[in-house]
Amino acid sequence: MSDLSGNKILGAGLATALTMTLLAVVTPMFFETPPVTKPGDLIAVAAEAPTGGVADIDLPPDWGTVLPTADVAAGEAKTAVCKTCHAFDPSGANNIGPGLYGVASPAATRASPIRPA
Questions:
Q1: C-beta separation of 100 from 88 below 8 A
Q2: Under a CB-based contact definition with an 8 Å cutoff, are residues 46 and 80 in contact?
Q3: Count of alpha carbons within 13 Å of 4, Cβ hemisphere only?
Q4: Taking residues 30-39, what's their average pLDDT?
Q5: Beta carbons of 99 and 92 less than 8 angstroms apart
Q6: pLDDT in tens, 36-65
Q7: How far is Cα 81 from Cα 83, in angstroms, rounded to an integer?
Q8: What's the pLDDT tens digit per position in 60-99?
Q9: Is 100 exposed, middle or buried (0-12, 13-18, 19+ CB in 10 A)?
Q10: How far is Cα 65 from Cα 70, in angstroms, rounded to an integer?
Q11: d(CA 17, CA 11)
């Protein structure tokens, strides 16, 4: 090796550092973004007049009055499509989809990203 090999290595390191610094300073000049004048996620909503009452609360149904009038055959017909993927037995076993024994909440069905076919 020659006597200048150390200088070559230091020169290459210095040239790399200079190039990176130059790119870091010059590149934002070409891709400068204008400041945001209005927030993009702001949604204009009309103000509601206060009603003075209690806000509507999503209450569960009164099962004492709903169950005696329920049509079992209609419920079985609706769940026949679901039985291809889900199990409704108390064991809680999973098929293609999770077991649905004891799930009666509409909120639980709305939370699922899977929609029936």
A1: yes
A2: no
A3: 3
A4: 80
A5: yes
A6: 787 777 777 777 766 665 566 677 778 788
A7: 6
A8: 778 788 888 888 888 888 888 888 888 888 877 788 888 8
A9: buried
A10: 9
A11: 10
